[in-house]
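Writing this down once: the sequence line spells out the residues, with the fold written below as integer tokens. This is how one looks:
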Amino acid sequence: MTTFKTTTDQFIKQRMMSYLQELGYNFYQSAKLLKLTQEERDEMSRHWAE
């Protein structure tokens, strides 16, 4: 159950980051709004294309 929750949380955060990017937010604004941990920021930054 924990693995499923973690995967779901990660998926939702990735989708929210994509949505915020489409709205014109930069990476740091988006990460701050979603209150991402440093580990999550490192992972998400790999998929962020400016």
The chain has three helices and no strands. The mean pLDDT is 84. The two ends are 35 Å apart (CA to CA).
